[in-house]
Amino acid sequence: MDTNVVIIGAGIAGLAAGYQLKKDGCDSIILEALSFVGGRMSSEECQGFIIDKAAYTFPDAHRNLRSFIQALGFRDHLVPTSGTTSTFSGGREYQIKIGSPMDFLKYKLLSGRNKRDMIKLFLYAQSLGKT
Fold it and tell me: Which pTM was predicted?
């Protein structure tokens, strides 16, 4: 394949695209405006705490993402979590146990509509065998 491709952004989608293109024999270059890769799937230290810029914990059920991480050779860099995540909003801490349907339903930072839409999306993904 002789195609040259420019990928804008070194977030997870840009990195995955670059990886797949390379695997398929296509030359590409990834351009990133920031001084780090990962985009929203990155962290920074603030006053001794590691702050995730976005929710990027994922359960074992995410087979495609786990396979991608394995293929890149980063499996040993995954860090197990306590299973609970915190979000701070309006000076308050809101905790939720990852993968807990009851905690999800009680989570105050999501509206009823958001919860309903997420349940519909989960059920749809489940019907496709993606969960």
Answer: 0.59
Same structural domain for residues 66 and 111?
yes
2-9 — which CB contacts under 8 Å span 24+ positions?
A: 3/27, 4/28, 4/29, 5/29, 6/31, 7/31, 9/33, 9/39
Q: Print the domain residue range for 98.
A: 57-131
Query: 19: closest CA among 79, 65, 78?
Result: 65
pLDDT digits (tens, 9 = 90+) for 78-111: 777 777 888 888 999 988 887 777 888 888 888 9
Q: Are residues 32 and 77 in the same domain?
A: no
